[in-house]
């Protein structure tokens, strides 16, 4: 159908080839065309989103994975990895590696219903449990970010814009009122840690789920489930969110609730994808399960 056709700017392109490869090839073509001037390139792969249509050669390579759905899902991830490698090679080819900040991440946790495995995290895509919101983030910038370095500070995609601005030698204007902060000094090692702050998530408006994290504490309130109370988890020792600490630390619950209310007061209601209250499932969300394969999404 027309709305699913790739566009070259505003021009529909002929169908053909494998989607993940086409996106990777398009990114490399952009790099080749713009390598002589500064550029920002956002490459939005659809893999490993459904449908689970992995390439035959990738399924053959992954034939040792017994479960068919898991094998197909892994095939999508392999194709994604291959094309990320292709893009990095294009940067190398044009001599851009040393002055290019590359960020790899994704928009949500794995969808376990189509083959992802989020162990030991609870939940999946579409949920505010860690399995739905905790995602990988890897950055490469030779000469600026030490190879193999690890940052444990909680960060989020909203931090990218101020980071990119400062990496380009500019400064963030306070009038922009950004929620994110620059990670540049932390990435380069000039700062030992980021300032403590609270991170917020909301799904389906003011009647849906809301979550807030500060330090190792995480509050989650499934407001879309009738009668549900706020739950509190200490992520440093309970990454699987299995032990609700709300009754033991009511002062933390009150503090995080107040912060969440203040943050939410600045938001507008979504124009679509809202929710209605449903039967209470206080223990809702997938519990971590130790499966034969512990690969993460």
List the helices and strands and how they pair.
Elements: E1 7-8, E2 11-12, H1 19-34, H2 56-61, H3 68-93, E3 102-105, H4 130-133, E4 137-140, H5 160-167, H6 184-188, E5 198-202, E6 209-214, E7 217-222, E8 231-234, H7 250-264
Antiparallel strand pairs: 1-2, 3-4, 5-6, 6-7, 7-8
Helix pairs in contact: 1-3
Task: Briefly say what this structure is.
The protein is α+β, with helices and mostly antiparallel strands.
Helix content: 25-40%
The secondary-structure element order is EEHHHEHEHHEEEEH
- Look at the helices and sheets and give the structural class: alpha+beta
Cα radius of gyration in angstroms: 21 Å
How much beta, percentage-wise? Answer: 5-15%
Major β-sheet strand ordering: 5-6-7-8
Low-confidence stretches: 290-297
**Largest β-sheet summary:** 4 strands, antiparallel
């Amino acid at each position: 159908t027309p709305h699913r056709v790739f566009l070259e700017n505003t021009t529909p392109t002929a169908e053909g080839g494998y989607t993940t490869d086409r996106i990777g090839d398009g990114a490399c073509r952009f790099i080749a065309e713009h390598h002589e001037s500064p550029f920002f390139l956002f490459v939005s792969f659809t893999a490993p989103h459904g449908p689970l249509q992995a390439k035959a050669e990738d399924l053959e390579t992954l034939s040792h994975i017994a479960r068919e759905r898991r094998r197909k899902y892994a095939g999508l991830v392999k194709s994604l990895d291959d094309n990320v490698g292709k893009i990095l090679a294009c940067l190398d080819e044009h001599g851009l590696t040393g002055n290019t900040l590359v960020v790899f991440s994704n928009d949500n946790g794995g969808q376990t219903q189509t083959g992802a495995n989020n162990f030991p995290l609870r939940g999946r895509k579409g949920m505010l449990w860690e399995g739905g919101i905790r995602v990988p983030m890897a950055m490469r910038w030779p000469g600026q970010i030490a190879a193999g370095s690890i940052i444990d500070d909680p960060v989020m995609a909203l931090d990218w814009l101020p980071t990119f601005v400062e990496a380009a030698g500019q400064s963030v204007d306070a009038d922009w009122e950004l929620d994110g902060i620059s990670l540049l000094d932390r990435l380069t090692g000039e700062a030992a840690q980021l300032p403590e702050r609270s991170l917020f998530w909301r799904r389906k408006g003011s009647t849906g789920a809301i979550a807030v994290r500060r330090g190792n504490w995480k509050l989650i309130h499934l407001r879309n489930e009738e009668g549900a109370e706020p739950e509190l988890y200490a992520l440093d020792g309970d990454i699987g969110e299995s032990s609700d600490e709300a009754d033991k630390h009511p002062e933390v619950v009150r503090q995080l609730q107040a912060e969440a209310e203040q943050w939410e007061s600045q938001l507008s209601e979504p124009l679509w994808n809202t929710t209605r209250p449903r039967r209470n499932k206080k223990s809702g969300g997938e519990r971590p399960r130790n499966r034969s394969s512990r690969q993460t999404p």
